Amino acid sequence: MADIDGTLTDMRRQVSTDAIAAIRSLPVPVVLASGNVICFMRAASKLIGASEAMIAETGGVIQVGYDAKPSVLADIEECRRAAALLLKEFPGLEQLDARYRMSELAFRRNVDLEKARALLAKYYPDLEIIDTKFALHLKHRSVNKGTGLVEVARLMGLRPEEFAAVGDSANDIHMFNAAGMGLAVGNATPEIKEAADYVAERPYGEGAAEALYWLARRL
C-alpha cells in the first residue's frame, strides 16, 4: 500500500518513474492510498500500474474494482458545517476539489493551523484537520488510511497485516499501524520514521523505489 504525494512524488507532485517501475515489478498488487479524490485515484492507479483497489480522501472513500461503486465511509455534511465556521473566521481559506469530495474537505495551507484546530475542537470535536504538507484535510476522526486499509483488505479477502505500507507524513501513521510492515521514504516526518520497519536513504519517489525493492527481496 503506497501513499502518493510526497512518497511517489516530489513536492511539485511529479511522480517518480523509478517508483512506477518498482511498483510494476512487484509480484503482489499495490493499493494506492491518498487524500486525493476518488476520480484522481482511479486515473492514477491505471497510469501508474497499481491495483484496482484504492483508498481516497484519507480513508473516507474506498473502491475495489475500477467499475465498482465507491464506498463512502464518512458523512461530509458535518465537515461542510465546520467549513462554514472556518471560512467565517478565516475568509481567505481556499477550498480544493470541493465538487468532487464525498467524505472530507480539503483546503490550501494558508491559515493559522493551530487556531483553526482550536476552533474545530470547540465546536466540532468529532472532526480534525490533518496537514499533509500539500493540503489541509478537514475530516472525521473515525476514518483514516488505517481504517481504509482494514476495509480494503476485507474486500480483497486479505488481512491488514498481510500488507506493507509506504509513506511520508502524519496521515500515513494509521496505515503503518494497521499494516504488517511500514516503509518510510527519506523525507518522511520523524513520527513516520520512528514507526517504520525500514527507512529509505533517498527521498520522495526514489526513496519509495528503494523501499519497494527492499521489500521485494523479502517476499
Provide an overview of this structure.
The protein is built from eight helices and twelve strands. With 219 residues, it is of the alpha/beta class. Strands 1-2-3-4-5 form a five-stranded mixed sheet, with helices on both faces. Strand 4 (61-64) and strand 5 (71-72) form a beta hairpin. Helix 1 (17-25) packs parallel to helix 8. It is globular, with a radius of gyration of 17 Å.
Which key phrases capture this entry?
single chain; 219 residues; Rossmann fold; five-stranded mixed β-sheet; four-stranded antiparallel β-sheet; 8 helices; magnesium ion binding
What is the helical fraction, as a range of percent?
25-40%
Structural class: alpha/beta
- Total beta strand runs: 12
CATH superfamily of the largest domain, by name, is HAD superfamily/HAD-like
Strand order across the largest sheet: 1-2-3-4-5
Number of helices: 8
Rounded to an integer, what's the Rg over CA atoms?
17 Å
Query: What is the count of structural domains?
Result: 2
For the residues shown, what is the average pLDDT? 96
The CATH level-2 architecture of the largest domain is identified as 3-Layer(aba) Sandwich
First CA to last CA: what distance? 15 Å
Give the class-level CATH name of the largest domain.
Answer: Alpha Beta
Order of helices and strands: EHEHEEEHEEHEEHEHEHEH
What fold name stands as the CATH topology of the largest domain? Rossmann fold
* Unreliable runs: none
Mind describing the biggest β-sheet? 5 strands, mixed
- Indicate the overall shape: globular
Question: What share of the residues does DSSP label as strand, in percent?
Answer: 15-25%
Keywords: Carbohydrate metabolism, Hydrolase, Magnesium, Metal-binding
Protein name: Phosphoglycolate phosphatase
GO molecular function: magnesium ion binding; phosphoglycolate phosphatase activity
EC number: 3.1.3.18
